[in-house]
Design brief:
The complex is a heterodimer of chains A (302) and B (285). The radius of gyration of chain A is 20 Å and the shape is globular. Chain A folds into two domains: 163 residues, no CATH class; 83 residues, Alpha-Beta Plaits, CATH 3.30.70. Chain A has a three-stranded antiparallel β-sheet with strand order 1-2-3. In chain A, strands 4-5 form a two-stranded antiparallel sheet. In chain A, strand 1 and strand 2 form a beta hairpin. Chain A has 15 helices and five strands. Chain B is of the alpha+beta class and 285 residues long. Chain B contains nine helices and eight strands. The chains are: A mainly alpha (302), B alpha+beta (285). At the A-B interface, strand 1, strand 2, helix 3, helix 4 and helix 7 of A face helix 1, helix 2, helix 3 and strand 1 of B.
C-alpha cells in the first residue's frame, strides 16, 4: 500500500520539486492558457480566439472545430460549412498525432476539477470503490451518437455536456452550469475514483478512439530501474494502462504505453523517482537497446 | 465441469451481467436525456433566433453551440441559452424588447456560423424571417384610441412594406381618423425594432416565432376573386338574370326593399345605417 502522506516525496528528493511537478504545471498552463486566449476578447477587447471549444476562430483566420460535436450535428442531418470541415481536419490531425486523450489532460477544463477531486481523495483517504465499468464511456458515446438520429431535439448531448458547459460557462456565462460541475466534483470525490473522466465521459471516449494509433506515447523504457513503489499507479487516472508496459518485460511486451486510454498527462513521469517513464514516439523504442536488454535478461532474442 | 471451466463460466456470467447493468444504466440516461431534450428546447415565445436560423428542429441539430454568432454580432444582442433555461443549452437567441436585431446588411452572425444552422443562403437581411411582429394588444395600443403615435411604423427598417398605416374612421369622435399600424408578413423580418420602440409600459406590438404568429388557410381553400384574376374570368357559371313579370310602374329589388311601386313615398322601419340595426339589441338594453 502506498503511503499517501509521503506520496511524491521520493521524486522531490531525487529530482527536486520542479522536475517532479513539471508536466502537472505545464498542463495547468496549457488548460488555463487556452481559456485565457478565449477570454482576452470578452474581458479586454483583445480578440485572439472567438467562440469556444465546439468551434472557434483564431485571429480571424484559423478555424478549429470539435469533431465530436460536429459528428453529432452531421448525424442529425447537417452538412457543415467549409470552415467547419477545415477546422475538424486540423483538430483531428493534431489528436491523431499527439494522442486523442491529450484533449482530456491538456485542454479540457473539467480535468482541473476532477484532478482536484482525485487529489482530495488521496489527502482525505477516501477509498470508495467504483462499481462502474470503464467501458461505460463507450456505451455513453454510442448513446450520444444515436440520440441525434432518433430524437428531434438534435444534438441532445450538448444540452447536458459538462465539458462544453464549463468552457462555455467561463467564456460566455455560467448560469446553473456550476451545479453540473459541482456534481462531477462530488461524484469523483465521494463515489468513484476518476469516475467522470475515466468511466463515463463520452467526450473522452471519442477522443480515445481518435488517438488509438497516435504517435506520441509515454514509455517505460527504463523499466528495469523500477523499484515497485507503486506511486505511478496511484497518481495515474487510467492506472490499467501502466502495467503492460512497466511489468510486461517477461511477456515480451513493449515498454511503450500503447493503450489509447492513456491521457499523456505525464504525471507518471513526474512522480517516478527513478525516471522510468518518458515521452517518446510510438515506434521510437530504442529497438537495439530493447533487444539487447532482452538478450541479457532472458538469454533470447526478442 | 472442471474447476477452471467453472471459473470461466462465472467470469462469463459476471461479464454479461456487468455489461447488462451498464447497458441498462446508460439506456436510462438516454431516456432521461430524450425527455429532458423536449423540455429544454421548448423556447419561450419571446426568445427569437438570429437571422437565417433553420426551422427549430433542424436548428437544434445543426447548431453546435460555439457562440461565434454571439461574438460577431456588432450590437451584442445575442445570448446563449444556459442550463435550466427553457431554450436549448448553448444555443443563441435574442429578446426583441430589450435588444432587437439591427439588421446589419452584411449579416455577420450568419457569416460566422460554421454549420449552416444560420443559413448561409441568406444574403439579404430583408429576406430573413426571425419571427413576425403582431399588434397583439389592440386595447392598449394608443393608435386604436385615436392618438397619433406611429412609432413602430417609423422605426421599422422596411417602413411602409413591413408595417403600414391603415387610415380608419374614428367612431368615438366621429370626425377624426385612426392611423392603425398593420404588419405585413410578406415583408416583416421579425427584427423586433418595433417591439423595442413601442412606447407603452408593456409593448402592444410584439415579435412572435412564426409558428405562433401565423395562421394557415386550409390547403383546399381557393379565394374566388384571386382564382378569377388568375383565370381571367369567373370560374363559376354566371347567375341567370332574373326576370319578373310585374305590372307597369312596379319593380322588384331583392336587397332590402322588395316590391317598389314607383312614385310611392319610401317608408321603412330601418335606418339607412346598417350598424343601427346590428347594434339595436345592445342599444335597447
Amino acid at each position: 500500500m502506498v503511503d499517501m502522506t509521503t506520496l511524491g516525496d521520493d521524486a522531490i528528493a531525487a529530482k527536486g520539486w520542479y522536475k517532479s511537478h513539471r508536466f502537472l504545471i505545464l498542463r495547468r498552463l496549457s488548460q488555463l492558457g487556452i481559456l485565457a486566449l478565449f477570454l482576452t476578447g470578452p474581458w479586454f477587447g483583445l480578440w485572439i480566439v472567438k467562440g469556444n471549444l465546439a468551434s472557434s476562430l483564431t485571429l480571424d483566420v484559423l478555424p478549429l472545430t470539435d469533431p465530436y460535436v460536429l459528428l453529432q450535428a452531421m448525424l442529425s442531418g447537417v452538412v457543415p460549412e467549409t470552415a467547419a470541415i477545415i477546422g475538424v481536419v486540423i483538430v483531428l490531425l493534431f489528436y491523431i498525432l499527439v494522442g486523442g486523450r491529450v484533449y482530456c489532460s491538456w485542454v479540457c477544463p473539467v480535468n482541473m476539477v476532477t484532478d482536484l477531486a482525485a487529489w482530495l481523495r488521496r489527502k482525505l483517504g477516501i477509498r470508495t470503490a467504483s462499481q462502474i465499468s470503464r467501458t461505460t464511456r463507450y456505451w455513453m458515446l454510442t448513446l450520444t451518437l444515436i440520440l441525434p438520429l432518433v430524437v428531434t431535439g438534435g444534438i441532445v448531448w450538448e444540452l447536458v455536456n459538462p465539458v462544453s458547459m464549463m468552457f462555455r460557462g467561463i467564456v460566455f456565462s455560467m448560469g446553473a452550469a456550476w451545479i453540473m460541475i459541482a456534481g462531477i466534483f462530488l461524484f469523483d470525490l465521494l463515489v468513484a475514483k476518476d469516475g467522470w473522466c475515466g468511466h463515463i465521459c463520452p467526450v473522452g471516449a471519442f477522443y480515445n478512439l481518435v488517438g488509438i494509433k497516435s504517435l506520441l506515447k509515454v514509455n517505460a523504457l527504463q523499466r528495469q530501474a523500477c523499484n515497485d513503489c507503486m506511486e505511478c499507479y496511484v497518481v495515474c487516472p487510467e492506472p490499467q494502462v501502466i502495467k503492460p508496459a512497466l511489468k510486461g518485460e517477461k511477456k515480451g511486451l513493449s515498454p511503450v504505453i500503447l493503450s489509447s486510454d492513456c491521457t499523456n498527462c505525464g504525471r507518471c513521469i513526474d512522480i517516478c523517482a527513478k525516471d522510468v517513464f518518458s515521452y517518446g514516439g510510438r515506434h521510437a523504442i530504442k529497438i537495439d537497446e530493447y533487444k539487447r536488454e532482452g538478450e541479457i535478461n532472458r538469454g533470447v532474442r526478442v | 465441469m472442471s474447476e477452471s471451466e467453472k471459473r470461466n463460466e462465472l467470469n462469463r456470467r459476471q461479464f454479461l451481467g456487468n455489461m447488462l447493468k451498464t447497458a441498462c444504466g446508460v439506456g436510462l440516461v438516454g431516456l432521461g436525456l430524450g425527455a429532458y431534450s423536449k423540455r429544454a428546447s421548448s423556447m419561450p415565445a419571446n426568445y427569437i433566433r438570429p437571422p437565417g436560423a433553420l426551422p427549430e428542429e433542424d436548428f437544434l441539430g445543426a447548431c453546435i453551440r460555439c457562440g461565434l454568432c454571439v461574438r460577431d454580432c456588432p450590437y451584442d444582442i445575442l445570448f446563449l441559452g444556459e442550463v435550466g433555461d427553457e431554450v436549448a443549452t448553448g444555443t443563441p437567441y435574442f429578446i426583441a424588447r430589450t435588444g432587437p436585431c439591427e439588421m446589419c446588411e452584411d449579416i455577420p452572425c450568419v457569416v460566422a456560423c460554421p454549420t449552416n444552422a444560420l443559413d448561409h443562403e441568406l444574403k439579404d437581411i430583408e429576406e430573413s424571417r426571425m419571427g413576425l411582429a403582431v399588434v397583439i394588444d389592440q386595447e392598449s395600443c394608443i393608435a386604436f384610441h385615436g392618438l397619433r403615435c406611429e412609432v413602430c411604423f417609423n422605426v421599422c427598417p422596411i417602413r411602409g412594406r413591413a408595417i403600414s398605416l391603415d387610415m380608419q374612421h374614428n367612431t368615438r369622435s366621429g370626425k377624426h381618423a385612426l392611423f392603425i399600424p398593420v404588419v405585413h408578413s410578406d415583408a416583416c423580418t421579425g427584427c423586433g425594432l418595433c417591439e423595442r420602440a413601442c412606447i407603452l409600459e408593456e409593448a402592444a406590438i410584439k415579435i412572435f416565432p412564426m409558428h405562433l404568429a401565423k395562421g394557415e388557410l386550409g390547403k383546399h381553400y381557393r379565394l374566388g376573386w384571386k382564382e378569377k384574376d388568375k383565370a381571367g374570368e369567373s370560374l363559376v357559371t354566371p347567375d341567370t338574370e332574373h326576370r319578373y313579370n310585374l305590372p307597369e310602374g312596379v319593380r322588384y329589388d331583392l336587397q332590402g326593399e322588395g316590391l317598389i311601386i314607383e312614385g310611392e313615398a319610401e317608408e321603412t322601419p330601418f335606418s339607412s345605417n346598417p350598424l343601427d340595426t346590428l347594434n339595436s339589441g345592445f342599444m335597447d338594453k
